[in-house]
Design brief:
Blueprint: H1 2-19, H2 35-55, H3 62-86, H4 97-119
Helix pairs in contact: 1-2, 2-3, 2-4, 3-4
Length: about 120
Amino acid sequence: MRNRFIPAIVWTLLLLVGLLTPGEQLPDVPNTIGLDKIVHLVLFMVLSFLWARAFIAKENKEVKKRKFIPIYLVFTLIFAILVEYMQRMVPGRAFDYLDILFNVLGVVAGTILFAYLHKNKSILV
């Protein structure tokens, strides 16, 4: 189970570095309407999925699942909101309530995806 935490930790650190990199150091990307929000959703969907996978191993009993679901869910939700607030202090980055919304939607989507795959005994979980 310990190895399941490595991808979650690495993804969290990569997200933190990427989202807190000053704006002028980021590559220029086309200003496509909504693309930024889709990126936020996908980034946080992966984050939530990886933390769910880390905390809920296949061999865990239902009691342990009920204990760990709130832990990783609260962690990922707080991280999704906090990182957006932290961007206010980064040059060239901006705080955006819609980014928070899509971060949270990504967390929810990742949780739902994990639950679905876990229930169907996918090899991905």
